[in-house]
């Protein structure tokens, strides 16, 4: 007896592969856009754009843009402490985002946007010609 439904597992497999392929392409496009946006934000903040590509150095440059002390980079190690670590890092992240938003002439509402919808609000900073960096540009002085 021949069933008309014997190709259904292959169809679901093909659909799954297509969905995974789409998600991979979408993720790569989102990462490329995020790199481009952060490159522009770093340059607007007086830091080298390529610094957004270097894992710990990019946080150090964000600290410079936010006018926070360089030794806050050690708060990255909070992430390795179970339960309390991510909560502590979230507090530091909010403080850094607030420093970035105020140094670009924005307020607390923009800080909330940077924390909750980072890619959108960093893109606003990157591409809005009216948003200027109002802080003084410095380089990391940890040497």
Protein model, in words:
This protein is mainly α. The chain is built from 5 helices and no strands. The protein has one domain. The protein is 62% helix and 0% strand. Helix 1 crosses helix 5, helix 2 packs across helix 3 and helix 3 packs across helix 4. The longest helix is centred in the N-terminal third of the chain and has 37 residues. The chain starts with 7 loop residues before the first helix and ends in a 16-residue tail after the last helix. The model has no long low-confidence stretch (mean pLDDT 88).
Topology summary:
Layout: H1 8-44, H2 55-66, H3 84-103, H4 108-116, H5 118-127
Strands, total number:
0
Q: Helix tally?
A: 5
From the alpha carbons, calculate the radius of gyration and give it in angstroms: 21 Å
The coarse overall form would be elongated
SS class = mainly alpha
Poorly predicted runs of 5 or more residues: none
As for the number of domains, it is 1
Termini Cα gap: 78 Å
Q: Strand fraction band?
A: under 5%
- The share of residues in helices is 55-70%
Biggest β-sheet description = none
Whole-number mean pLDDT: 88
SSE string, helix = H, strand = E?
HHHHH
């Amino acid at each position: 007896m021949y069933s008309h439904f014997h190709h259904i597992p292959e169809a679901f497999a093909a659909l799954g592969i297509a969905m995974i392929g789409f998600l991979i392409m979408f993720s790569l496009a989102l990462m490329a856009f995020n790199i481009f946006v952060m490159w522009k934000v770093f340059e607007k903040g007086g830091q080298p754009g390529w610094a957004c590509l270097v894992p710990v150095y990019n946080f150090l440059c964000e600290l410079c843009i936010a006018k926070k002390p360089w030794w806050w980079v050690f708060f990255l190690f909070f992430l390795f402490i179970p339960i309390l670590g991510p909560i502590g890092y979230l507090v530091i992240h909010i403080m850094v985002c607030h420093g970035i938003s105020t140094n670009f002439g924005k307020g607390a509402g923009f800080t909330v946007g940077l924390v909750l919808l980072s890619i959108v609000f960093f893109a606003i900073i990157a591409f809005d010609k009216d948003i200027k960096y109002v802080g003084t540009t410095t380089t990391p002085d940890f040497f």
